[in-house]
User: Which sequence fits this backbone?
């Protein structure tokens, strides 16, 4: 090799090593996963069976789970760890789905299955989806509850999980039922059956900066808490508050579905929790079980066929008889009203503890005025989404946390199968629907999944790594084509 080329290679290697070593040091310890969502339909043909003419059943959502698109469920608030050096990844999500079908004469159901708290574990190139399962055996009726069952095997298709980015995003991972999953699925399917693919996005906190081995500073002892510093007020002026309400699950699905082809937009501080909208900054009074409070935030539903419904200026009251009412300013092409009574909800037993008054998932029904506000789409008395209400009466009381969808939980995203990392795909309808004013933050314009990758270290490093990346992608595509199971059973 000519001398000038040897010198160039030497300089190049030194630059690459100099760039890689600090990155490796930064990845050395596992990093915290905090915030994110997992989208999974479990098995779409099972959903169709449950809600179809044979089982004549239904499903309900628990723990803040939501629906997304046509047949997926969204689980929220990822927590776990990620090691960029090894690619080891663990993330648990909140929420669950309860299926019932084949109603019997005594009012119980022959089919009764709850799947909740999915957890994804990836290590050494293989992945497993764990869930909590409560199921009723279809033949004997015996009820079994199991925690964190290894329910599905996930095909990674040669994806290299190593890296150091601030998010892990995996789209459409093929999933197949394990032997343990088949047993916990009450015998409806056998091991190896194809389940719906799994998609997830989870935020990864930056690694802590390494500090010198200096003697840590000793904190001065804090004073013992006293009653005066932690008041337990049970009535008075509201310091802060929030009302959480999803309007109605089937209405949200109609808005983003094939008929309306629409979306919703949040403004004035309203937040999207997946299955609900949070209207914050509550102000008012709570005394002797009676509450009157106003909240900020607005939501607007738009779509085809004249859909344009805006709700703002929310207000709630709780009367002495325990009946709650939710009011809002309503604007639509056929209806305009201020302080319209939308729904009533059962509020007889709010919990009060350490300055926090909370009501969780109170059943709600549409009022006469509410039926008019929805343009006659629903009749008065129709069951709407439950209402959760919380207000603080002291400065140190904290409101319940909102389901955390992570940084990729809002905005339009694209998805791709593991082997088609550069193929474009249609955007997720529900993600587009839940788009807030902040715009898209998917971080991908070409449909590629947001795989965990390190920050760019300059054009020199990228040029040096180009050949290795191309080779690895070719190997990944070949492996995926051979290993991917068949797609989910058609409904």
Assistant:
């Amino acid at each position: 090799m000519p001398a000038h080329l040897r010198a160039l290679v030497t300089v190049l290697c030194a630059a690459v090593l100099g760039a890689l070593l600090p990155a490796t040091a930064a990845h050395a310890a596992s990093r915290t996963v905090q915030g994110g969502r997992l989208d999974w339909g479990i098995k779409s043909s099972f959903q169709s069976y449950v809600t179809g003419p044979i089982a004549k059943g239904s499903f309900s959502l628990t723990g803040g789970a939501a629906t997304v698109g046509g047949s997926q469920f969204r689980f929220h608030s990822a927590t776990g760890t990620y090691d960029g050096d090894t690619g080891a990844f663990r993330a648990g999500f909140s929420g669950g789905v309860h299926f019932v079908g084949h109603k019997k004469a005594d009012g119980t159901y022959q089919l009764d299955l709850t799947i909740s708290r999915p957890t994804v574990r990836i290590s050494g190139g293989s992945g497993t989806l764990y869930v909590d399962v409560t199921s009723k055996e279809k033949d004997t009726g015996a009820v079994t509850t199991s925690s964190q069952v290894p329910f599905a095997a996930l095909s990674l298709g040669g994806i290299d999980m190593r890296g150091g980015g601030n998010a892990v995003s995996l789209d459409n991972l093929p999933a197949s039922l394990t032997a343990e999953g088949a047993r916990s699925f009450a015998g409806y399917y056998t091991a190896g059956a194809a389940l719906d693919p799994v998609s997830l996005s989870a935020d990864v906190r930056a690694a802590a900066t390494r500090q010198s081995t200096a003697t840590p500073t000793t904190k001065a002892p804090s004073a013992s808490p006293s009653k005066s510093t932690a008041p337990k007020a049970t009535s008075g002026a509201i310091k802060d508050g929030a009302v959480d309400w999803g309007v109605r699950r089937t209405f949200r699905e109609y808005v983003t579905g094939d008929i309306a082809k629409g979306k919703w937009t949040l403004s004035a501080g309203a937040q999207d929790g997946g299955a609900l909208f949070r209207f914050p900054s509550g102000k008012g009074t709570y005394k002797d079980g009676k509450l009157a409070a106003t909240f900020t935030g607005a939501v607007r539903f738009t779509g085809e066929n004249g859909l344009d419904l805006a709700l703002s200026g929310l207000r709630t009251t709780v009367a002495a008889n325990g009946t709650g009412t939710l009011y809002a300013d309503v604007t639509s092409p056929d209806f305009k009203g201020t302080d319209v009574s939308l729904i009533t909800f059962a509020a007889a037993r709010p919990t009060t503890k350490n300055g926090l008054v909370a009501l969780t998932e109170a059943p709600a029904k549409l009022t006469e005025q509410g039926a008019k506000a929805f343009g006659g789409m629903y009749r008065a008395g129709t069951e709407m989404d439950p209402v959760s209400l919380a207000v603080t009466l002291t400065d140190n009381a904290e409101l319940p946390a909102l389901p955390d969808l992570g940084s990729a939980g809002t905005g339009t995203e694209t998805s791709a199968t593991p082997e088609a990392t550069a193929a474009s795909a249609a955007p997720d309808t529900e993600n587009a629907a839940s788009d807030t004013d902040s715009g898209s933050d998917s971080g991908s314009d070409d449909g590629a999944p947001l795989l965990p990758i390190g920050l760019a270290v300059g054009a020199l490093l990228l040029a040096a790594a180009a050949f290795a990346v191309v080779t690895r992608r070719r190997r990944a595509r070949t492996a995926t084509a051979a290993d991917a199971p068949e797609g989910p059973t058609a409904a």
Observations:
- The longest helix spans residues 3-27.
